[in-house]
Hints:
Blueprint: E1 4-10, H1 17-22, H2 26-29, E2 32-39, H3 46-56, E3 62-66, H4 72-86, E4 91-96, H5 106-114, E5 120-124, H6 131-134, H7 139-156, E6 168-171, H8 172-176, H9 189-199, E7 204-208, H10 222-240, H11 264-273, E8 279-283, H12 289-296, E9 300-305, H13 312-315, E10 318-321, E11 336-342, H14 351-360, E12 362-373, H15 378-385, H16 407-416, E13 419-427, H17 446-461, H18 463-466, E14 469-476
Parallel strand pairs: 1-2, 1-4, 2-3, 5-7, 8-9, 8-11, 9-10, 11-12
Antiparallel strand pairs: 4-6, 5-6, 12-14, 13-14
Helix pairs in contact: 7-10, 9-10
Amino acid sequence: MKRIGVLVVAYNAASTLAAVLDRIPRDFVDRIDRVLVHDDYSQDATYLVGLGYQQTTPELPLEVIRHPRNLGYGGNQKASYAWAMEHGLDIVVLLHGDGQYAPELLPEMVAPLERDEADAVFGSRMMEAGAARRGGMPMYKYVGNKILTGIENAAAGMDLSEWHSGYRAYSVEALRELPLEITSDGFDFDTQIILQLHEAGKRIVEIPIPTYYGGEICHVNGLKYAADVTHAALRYRAHKMGLGTGETAFATEHYEMKDSAATSHGRLLEILTRLPPSRILDLGCDDGSMGERLRLAGHEVTGVDLHKLEGVGDRLDRFVEFDLEFGVPPEVGGDYDVVLAADVLEHVRRPDLLLADIRSRLTPTGKVVTSVPNMGHWYPRVRVAAGRFDYDRRGILDSGHLRFFTRQSFERLVRAGGFEIRHRDAVGVPFEVSKRGVAAPAPASGLRRTVEAVESVAVGTWPTLFGYQLVYVLAPAAER
Length: 480
């Protein structure tokens, strides 16, 4: 039996709290390990009502805590989840002390978690058509809910029916894995925890719940709330694309295979799949996803990377574990038709020496196909101009980058290394980000298509400013 806790967040709920506790199904009480009423420094008698209920209803395992100061809606939740972790609970259900959500559905809320079918269960007022309005949800709130949910789904690559219900149940083990300390103390906490669950690859299940609007006092500033949750969702999307400090994309891998032709991976695959069957050396092959595509196109692929990730040996013809800081491993040999160096040269201290080693492994007609981040892109320029230069988790300012290139500096490097440029290209910000979420909705929204079209024109017109990554095909220069 999993230990179930019910967490009641309460602020100025003296008139409603007892009724909420009364509505907890009595045939469910025996399954509850603990009930916590967390009074967030209410200005009314909420705490006293909780204590009174504790004394008159001993069959309910109730504990009442009053914060010495107001923590905010998100801060109160974080304190409640910390309490649940400390007390060894397995499942927690979030209830609101104002009675807006139905305690009668507690068994349904915990059922998917008890069956290990979910890591989080959300009660949704929007799953049943028309139910929210019949339950008294004002039209302006209904429309705002739908608009904000659409924006958040598009930004995060999700398909929830509602982001704004506060009726939720969580696996405590899943909560332990989330960096809740970086989340807001305000009402946008509910949006941020959805983003964190999604980023961590957790399973979210929705169930329909009734809508109830009574005489409760709304403490939410609607316009500020809308701005805050939109900012949180868009910031997450930006972090997934490599723009920003990246802490909201905490579980995202640095290397993620992207299929769109507008990304560096798509452009590199387009170049390589046009070639006749070739021997390819894939430096910095990561998990072998790119090499696997190349093998399907008829190429023989040898991969090299610092660590052997799961499955890489099955995806490639051969894999060698080696630190490219020390050049190309001797055991891979030479006579390669193509050396692929996708986002590799910026990770080594002496890219000139690595390029020289690469040159020695090519056939006389061999080529190097490579991509590097563009330090001349508007994003790092703005960061530097604003005096806010720092490393990010990923993207152009990735904390693992040891060298930074503009188009001019990179082309100077390759020419000094004895290469000539056969092809030069640039790609924009990767709106498509796969794995762990953010896969853009299909078909793409009109807004996204418009943004991509505008950026495509900007990259083509001014690649040194709007090119997020630079893509090259290089060949050894003829001896003079």
